[in-house]
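Renewal narrative, Specific Aim 1. Our central claim is that a sequence can be written position by position from structural information alone. The example that follows is taken directly from our test logs and has not been curated for this report. It begins with the structure tokens describing the chain, in the order in which they were read.
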């Protein structure tokens, strides 16, 4: 267990796997993970996690601090691997299942992984990772076919008991790879203590009152935000229902909501749009839903209004990055309105999460007044421990204790945050700052448009005479604000 030598007292934290330990003891026979007709109780999940952790330790030689790369579709095994890694003190490194072999090989090399677990379709990914990461000693396949067989490894260690490893508040638990929009993906270090705060924050700010009677439907990849949401439900003792493999089928999702009386789900705006525009939303009972949480990208106002009309007052929005594990702002159910009335908070992503602080800063790091646009910066216990092995990225992202998100926005006098775009997206036309998001929102108010996107284009010098500058065009009406 790593401790700061300057501190004479212990900074020991609770191992994230202890959520499972506690549930197995208190809720043992109740459902933990459901997929189709397969139901894993909390005690059965605990047994399988113990067996897998023992196999990783005793058969494959893993120890605390080792990194385990996972490339697999959503399934009970994704949850088992996550918890087994934490139980034995290893670090979970999930990859996006849509990534190519070369992309995943870069993650394996960057994270210096010791072992890889993938499903039966990942043979090419495993081969690429083995070639790229010399420290990767083993491959385990879910479904077999190459490497070691996952189920055989679990079966060989059935009955083993593994205690939750001692961890420090700052012990790494999860390497979360960024999308790489500004270059190669960076490995964000999420720790046991930091994630414990985020879990409690999610339960307080996003899903208050969630407990063992609740059921969550997993409709997004467990390798990213849905994995954290599943951990949040686990902390509350709530079961998770997994979709069948393959592309998201809205009709299947709504049937599962009705059958299991689902109370919450984590989504992104495109999934909310897909679910609420499918005819199945009107043919299945979804009255059990209390929280439909969306994040990952802004939701256009017209899509938001449509979802509210279909689902009722269940939408919860949060804004956050992987580096802050989603915990920057929240727009709760009561701040969502289906009509553009004066009470509606149109265009905001909400107010600061409990225990977090947001500051709008200029290029020099000075705080700006309300309604002034600048970079959104954040501080608090949800901020990550930095980027793994990347001093340059850390120097650029942290300033005077604040994490710099790279997003532009402003706050109103009441503390509601409005995002205007990325610093790299803003362009100047006719001497004015133009944010593509605002143009897209305006276009979507036209009834003939369902989806829009504003893209940058370089205009050849000889063709410019045929274009009208923004300053020569009539000014569009302002977007409604509170």
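The sequence written for that structure reads:
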């Amino acid at each position: 267990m790593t401790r700061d030598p300057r501190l004479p007292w212990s900074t020991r934290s609770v191992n994230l796997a202890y959520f499972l330990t506690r549930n197995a003891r208190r809720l043992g026979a109740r459902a933990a993970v459901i997929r189709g007709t397969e139901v894993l109780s909390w005690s059965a999940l605990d047994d399988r996690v113990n067996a897998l952790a023992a196999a990783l330790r005793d058969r494959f030689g893993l120890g605390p601090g080792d990194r385990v790369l996972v490339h697999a579709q959503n399934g009970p095994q994704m949850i088992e691997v996550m918890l087994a890694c934490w139980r034995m003190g290893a670090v979970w490194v999930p990859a996006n299942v849509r990534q190519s072999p070369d992309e995943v090989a870069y993650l394996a090399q960057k994270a210096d992984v010791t072992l890889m677990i993938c499903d039966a379709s990942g043979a090419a990914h495993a081969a690429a990772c083995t070639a790229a990461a010399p420290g990767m000693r083993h491959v385990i396949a879910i479904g077999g076919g190459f490497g070691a067989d996952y189920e055989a490894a679990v079966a060989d260690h059935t009955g083993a008991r593994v205690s939750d490893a001692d961890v420090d508040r700052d012990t790494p638990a999860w390497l979360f790879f960024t999308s790489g929009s500004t270059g190669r993906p960076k490995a964000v270090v999420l720790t046991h203590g930091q994630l414990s705060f985020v879990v409690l924050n999610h339960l307080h700010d996003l899903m208050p009152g969630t407990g063992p009677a609740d059921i969550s439907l997993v409709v997004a990849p467990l390798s990213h935000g849905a994995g954290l949401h599943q951990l949040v439900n686990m902390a509350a003792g709530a079961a998770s229902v997994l979709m069948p493999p393959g592309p998201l089928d809205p009709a299947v999702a709504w049937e599962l909501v009705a059958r299991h009386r689902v109370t919450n789900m984590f989504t992104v705006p495109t999934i909310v749009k897909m679910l609420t525009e499918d005819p199945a939303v009107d043919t299945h009972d979804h009255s059990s839903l209390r929280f439909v949480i969306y994040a990952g990208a802004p939701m256009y106002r017209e899509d938001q209004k449509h979802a509210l009309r279909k689902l009722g007052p269940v939408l919860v929005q949060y804004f956050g990055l992987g580096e802050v594990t989603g915990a920057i702002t929240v727009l709760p159910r009561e701040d969502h309105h289906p009509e553009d009335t004066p009470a509606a908070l149109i265009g905001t992503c909400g107010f600061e999460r409990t225990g977090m602080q947001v500051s709008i800063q200029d290029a020099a790091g000075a705080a700006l007044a309300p309604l002034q646009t600048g970079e959104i910066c954040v501080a608090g216990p949800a901020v990550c421990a930095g980027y793994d092995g990347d001093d340059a990225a850390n120097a650029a992202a942290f300033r005077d204790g604040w994490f710099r998100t790279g997003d532009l926005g402003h706050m109103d006098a009441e503390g509601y945050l409005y995002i205007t775009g990325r610093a790299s997206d803003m362009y100047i036309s006719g001497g004015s700052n133009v944010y593509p998001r605002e143009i897209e929102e305006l276009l979507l108010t036209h009834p003939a448009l369902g989806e829009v996107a504003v893209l940058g284009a370089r205009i050849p010098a000889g063709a410019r005479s045929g274009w009208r500058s923004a300053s020569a065009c009539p000014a569009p009406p302002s977007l409604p604000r509170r």
